[in-house]
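Problem 12. The chain below contains 332 residues. Write out its predicted structure in token notation.
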Amino acid sequence: MKNYNPPFTITNEILSLVSSISEKIGSITVISSLETKPYLRKNNRIKSIHSSLKIEANSLSLGQVRDVIAGKPVLGTQKEIQEVQNAYAAYEKISEINPYSLKDLKRFHSIMTMYVVKESGSFREGEEGVFNGDRCIFMAPPARLVPKLMDDLFHWMKEAQNSIHPLILSSVFHYEFVFIHPFSDGNGRIARLWHTAILSKWKPIFEYIPIESQIEKFQNEYYDAIARCHVDGSSTFFIHFMLSQIDEILDSILVQNDEDAKCLSESMKKLLSVMEYDVSYTGKDLMEKLGLRSREGFRRNYLRPAIESKLISMTIPDKPNSRNQRYVKNKN
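Solution.
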């Protein structure tokens, strides 16, 4: 039997977007920042989770999602709180995903829908449709066809991973997965998680780029793109849509990087200006000299960048949180 190949066309516009995204990824210096700033990684991850769940009608705010993840009490339904906990557990393990493994897909669906969906980790047995709110976009294939369709899709992915660019392959998978709608619930969440997982295997930075937030901003357009591809019988339009969204969010990251760099540069200049050589200072001393009240803001915007840039040093580097810790200005 002939192997299944999802129908799509690689247009000049798609190639142009692939080139643009690749260039911007190469320009983004946030990779090193993410490695040294766990709070930034976590913040982007929380944005991804909040947006992906909001698309599926979870009503918890970004602040409430943050509180749930932090283990704080939140006023909300148990189902919505559980959805946040499940999504966080799944995204925390994203680096473990083999995006070309159907077994992994079922395992992560189980994590994503634990205690929320009866058929967690198993393909649906009933008939389902793709909905944007109360509006039905299209009816999914019959449940009896799902196992074969999913086997075909993953076989194609394994065969295509070395010949089709990950930016295109991930978008094709995303559409085909939503079209098949293999689970009774959680399909959108898994589709977006898997899209990110495929891209993060290409460039690890994608693990912390909240593509879901961009989709959530253009939710109607997202579903319209899916609906149009269903009519066209091809995922070409959806590929173009997703690449456009990724290209746009990278633009915002580049702008934010420039702003952060300027901010940090000014912050470090201010910090160095209040320090003298051969004098050790406590964190409290420096905050008073700078007129700052927020300890976390001081550490994030002044202290950490200056230490990472080797402009100042800790007197007890092996015990960064020591109560006796002092900071000294390095000589060039």
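Discussion. The beta strands are 129-132, 135-139, 312-314, 327-329. Students who got a different answer should revisit the alignment rule from Section 12.3.
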